[in-house]
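Regression test attached.
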Amino acid sequence: MSDLTKLTIAEAREGLKKKEFSSVELTKAYIEKMEANRKLNAFVLETPEIALAQAKISDEKYAKGTNGILEGIPLGIKDLFCTKGIRTTACSHILDGFEPQYESTVTGKLLEAGASILGKLNLDEFAMGGSNETSYYGPVINPHKAKDSDADLVAGGSSGGSAAAVAADMCAGATGTDTGGSIRQPAAFCGVTGIKPTYGRCSRYGIIAFASSLDQAGPIAKDVRDCAIMLNAMAGYDPKDSTSAKIAVPDFESFLGQNIKGLKVGIPAEYRPDGLNAEISKLWDDGIAKLKEQGAEIVDISLPHTKYALAAYYIIAPAEASSNLARYDGLRYGLRVPGEHLDNMYINSRTEGFGKEVKRRIMIGTYVLSAGYYDAYYLKAQKVRRLIREDFIKAFEKCDVILTPTAPVAAFPIGDKSMQENPINMWLNDVFTVSVNLAGLPGMSLPFGVNAQGLPLGLQLIGKAFDEGTIFKTASALMTEKK
Amino acid sequence: MAIDNETVKRVAFLSRLKIEDDKLEETKEEFNKILNWVEQLNEVNTDGVEPLISVNDSNLLLRHDEVTEGNQADAVLKNAPQAQYGYFTVPKVVE
């Protein structure tokens, strides 16, 4: 039998339906891959027994014809999603041994659709990072290497485990979350496909919160169709999340292969700053040409406040994080470090439990929310956020979808000095992705090419709010005869 | 708006985090670098702009004020590092 882990979800589903192989066989193939690739550090917890037990049930369902839309498909779950009875840590020391007593809505929906859980995937601590190097469990290693170097490269972040596991065929697909680019940037670095849907499209219930007005769950998978299949299962209104949208979810798969003749594709001038990497600039031009060939109309647009998105983000996201992470007090779950008085116990637990980047962001957030500075920083950032959103609203009067690069660079070596020395250098990796979160829009990263070193580069499609359909349509046109 | 060591200490305490004295200077410098960088927002004219708190266009929905998932005390306490008699326990706060 050929290597089952090479199949896309769509192909595996066909094979299962036709009884060419069983879900148990498929799951065993993935478990072998998962174990063989442990050096990548993509999984922080493997749950092969759980996956196999689920696979047995799936095989029975196929026999009875009661299979769900993801029946028997083994997935990896970012360790930011609460999974009932399965350790969930956000890759932070402070959540040592935490076993959620409930299931996140998104993982619950995937399980209900018949998917199985192979394990929990590595991420930057509390999803704060762009290289997966802030994880308490250590960095994820990118399955790709540069042609003329043996150096281990980062998988991107924060969903680095998800992107690397999909790229190395360690799972059929994975969940991710994206607050400033955490699905799209690692997908680009690892040469896989990932979509952050519109804010409100997927329920945030049971996802460990980082910045609640920006966080959104989405799939990372082998191709555009697999992302559509997974998002179909993940999306939908949830009364348990007051910010989830009461808007009908279309069948995302139905947009694939639709004609793009006359589709207006916006190209924002501000995403091509002086000094943009020549290979990335070329990749973007190739993408534009490919859409043009198929009848799309290319429209020049302007998003004038792009330049300020990162600064606004690094006020708003830490502010929300400082509030969300106040709950880690050593009392109710996770790590507790004793202290003589209550305050000492809080301080000792938090000081030992949080890593450097998380502490940095908690403190920035606390500062910008503190009396006397609130207006100058937090309120100012929220005003700029509105201007960024209005830029997009105006741009979408002229176009249907926007095409940009996903990230300004390809994967870089683990322990890169300039990024370790100055956190702002690391944050700059999100320059093309972060506006999308501030505006609450959907964005998808596609593995459109490689650089001279053979490293994957991504292109990003940005859609109107709740118009992931147009993204899927454009993505399938962009990726035709390219896999 | 450069900040001093005292402010760093105060922010650390508000965050319930401890910064060792020999790390204060380094933390302050890093903090100032970041604040300097975000202050580029002052270049943007935001006169008359409403702050954007949520990208949701719809209002939050109301629901009836009723128990939906009650009687879960054991599950709530399951992950507590220390619990006794059905409560979380804390260091003594009253003499």
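Expected vs. actual: identical. The first strand of chain B starts at residue 83 and ends at 84.
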